[in-house]
């Protein structure tokens, strides 16, 4: 083996050389590949060099070394990274490759001469390439092999590099640190430290985090050489004492991009110097996050992000509760920790959330007095907001503050609610309310939001707390206290808000939000009835509280109540009181409790929407009376009047029209309670809402008619509107009158933005009569126009205004359509309740078609939510219908529904929709079957007749859908075996047209599909018609001719043959004769690809049953191959040419 010097000499003398292509390909993977490809490429490169022959091995090695070092200066993609990894692997693998050659190649390929002729970027790339070359030597672990002169050269190169380019300083310092980590103490003291000492003697002057990190590494590795005296003289000792904090802060500000150095290296050293998190943050973090005088937002945001990262890192260490409390109460930190942002993907907010995670964990560990911390945060907000010119600092309005509130214990939450309630009513127990009315309003709003949050918290809420807070919201939102009344809760002080005041509006919204949230709040320890009962008790308490307020002389509603409202309220309160006594005796949800819930909701809703509530109450009063009377009498008095449950259903649908989630929850709850009394007519009221019917159209409202891309004629809005759109002079005159009245009203309001498009249209219509400027003098005479010109101008202006009205009407229709779709989504909640109930079987037939039509009608582009929900409910309905029995509807009614669905299938084009219609038909037929224990129960005779009629229409009338019947049969072929003889008879009939025979073959393929294990009776049924079909299909196959056969008809025949022979459970051996195989072998050369594939399946199956046929088939195949070869021979081709 040659020595290093000999190897180096031979490499240097190598002439221009090109290595094998596989080695060249590796370099592409190093520069353009992924991390895995680069890693694999470096290993592959070394193996290829190792496997190469000795005579070119040195040349390949020299080429690779040159190219790797030259590529270090490239800025193309990942070339610098990949080539650096490759060089490290090369130096590790070939130990005999002298480092001198590497340094010489670096100087040769990465020259620094003629820098003035190069661009700044090119010079920087050269320096970066040299840095990566030196780093590769260090990472290879062979730095100790450098002699003194080479080591000196490397260090000079690094120091020179840091002085040349500022952006190279971090790279230079990092490589120098790596160098120090691998050097011996002797070489460090003799060669490295003398030069670094000069550099580090400048101390904190122009110090960066990289320079500081280099000093730390020197002290860690060689403390006896880098002595304490040196540090104390030039830097100050301890290095991270409080005296040096300002200097360290300056270094941090100068190198904010090196956050990882600060977090991973410098902060741990600071904590080792007997410093706690409070000391470090006070000197470094708090000053780092101070607001800049010049208001540089980008720089400020960057500093705050660094500060939050420092704070998060500090909380990862040990601290006491006192230190933690003092830490989070630093003003600048608190501003960012309790940060409120309306922007998406706010970096500062994410960092604040990460810090809050640490704070929450620490507080849980210490089992801290959270209420005291909450109080201190309130106090801090007050102190930061006190200056007159300053804006209020919303610390307590942030999401992270509510996370602190969630740590309150139940008793602490109760105390906090008491403090907040007192503050809202004007009694400031914590001294946290500011003097400024504007700022105090913001604080009161924060208190109200905190009350809502705690009331709806599963951890903190209690029945007493709910009653107290909701009573407060109710009193402030709807009533005013003219004289103190200590006997009534929340009336001991004359704290009132005017209508439309932000606090009054917030109280009203918080009241309904709490009711909404508490209606669905679940307690693991309570049963459904217990939760329902507690919610009823809450509503009863609120109604009683309203009654108390109304009957107190010194308390008045904010909106004065006329006698009509008072009388309606008294009537409702008396009824609620009576029903409450009955419900208290019950132990489960009943009609009485459902009506009580409905009465309570409508009563509370009277405070904000009196007309709607009273209109609905009139019907509910009658329904309650009939329901309770029916319960006692067990029958209805008057058969002509609608059943009470139908009227209640209409009331519930009206509640769903309200833009209230609480109304939606109440509706669903009441509907579940009355579900046992539902009738088909009541269900029909719900389904009529889903698909409004249009006079003179199909049941789908014209949904199945293709109106083109721009058709708006079939919109639901048009179907629901009572007023017809007409055109003419009367309409134009009315429109102009309305426009004039609107203009008069607009004069009294603020000036609105002008529609420039409409202005332009009017100007074009006026032509020369249009004014060029808005401020043009009124005295200027307009051009005289003739009568005809005036009439023409009038017509043009009328057209302009008509077009504007139509445009506005289209927008209104779109908004109304959106409202209608949203209403349907809410109504589908009731449909889902029916499907999931025990009475699902009784109403499957009523729900099936409306849900199907809604699914077919809904455009997923316009309303994806409605489309998805209708699809999911249709699937749920089909699933729940299995095994169900309908005890309400007659078989004739079922048959009529099935006829309607079959007729619907004739109009559907989309295959997915057609499959849904087939599934609906199948569900109807299954629902009518009595014995649910059978695998495939027989269909009633009237269904069989209907299916045979449908089959006849499909075969004889081309317009009827074959696909629909096939999809229906595919759902359960055994259920439709009674159709097989009819189909087969039609197929064998000589008078049947070819197209009809093709349909028969397709249907028989569907009927022949295997679905599961068969009993003996089913096997006999199948064997009977299949045997008959086999003989006829065999005749058809044998009658096929080579050129005259019709492709589609042949395809159907062969497909049926394949389907029949695949039923090995019916036929033990292949049912076809050998002659079929022979005939197909003769004629299949004229078949296309699809027909040939089917023929080969038939031939192969026959061959498996008959060994002689298999041999003949192979002989035929070999003969065809020989003929094909001879046909393609050069001689044959020449003759053809």
Category from helices, strands and their pairing: mainly alpha
> What profile does the largest beta sheet have?
2 strands, antiparallel
- The whole-angstrom Rg is 44 Å
Proportion in helices: 55-70%
Q: Uncertain spans, ≥5 residues at pLDDT below 50?
A: 1-15, 695-754, 773-780, 930-936, 1121-1137
Number of helices: 50
| CATH-derived topology of the domain at 4-234 | Leucine-rich Repeat Variant
Instruction: Give the termini separation.
Output: 67 Å
Question: Strand sequence of the main sheet, in spatial order?
Answer: 1-2
Could you say what the CATH architecture of the domain at 4-234 is?
Alpha Horseshoe
Shape: flat
Query: What's the mean pLDDT score?
Result: 82
The total count of strands amounts to 2
Beta fraction of the residues? under 5%
User: Briefly, what CATH class of the domain at 4-234?
Assistant: Mainly Alpha
Main location: nucleus
Protein name: Myb-binding protein 1A-like protein
Biased composition (Basic and acidic residues): 756-772, 1111-1122
GO molecular function: RNA binding; sequence-specific DNA binding; transcription corepressor activity
Structural summary, described in words:
This is Myb-binding protein 1A-like protein. InterPro entries: ARM-type_fold, DNA_pol_V/MYBBP1A. The chain has 50 helices and 2 strands. Among the domains are: 231 residues, Alpha Horseshoe (Leucine-rich Repeat Variant); 113 residues. Helix 28 packs antiparallel against helix 29 and helix 45 packs antiparallel against helix 46. The radius of gyration is 44 Å and the shape is flat. A two-stranded antiparallel sheet has the order 1-2. The N terminus and C terminus are likely disordered. With 1137 residues, it is mostly helical. It is 68% helix and 1% strand.
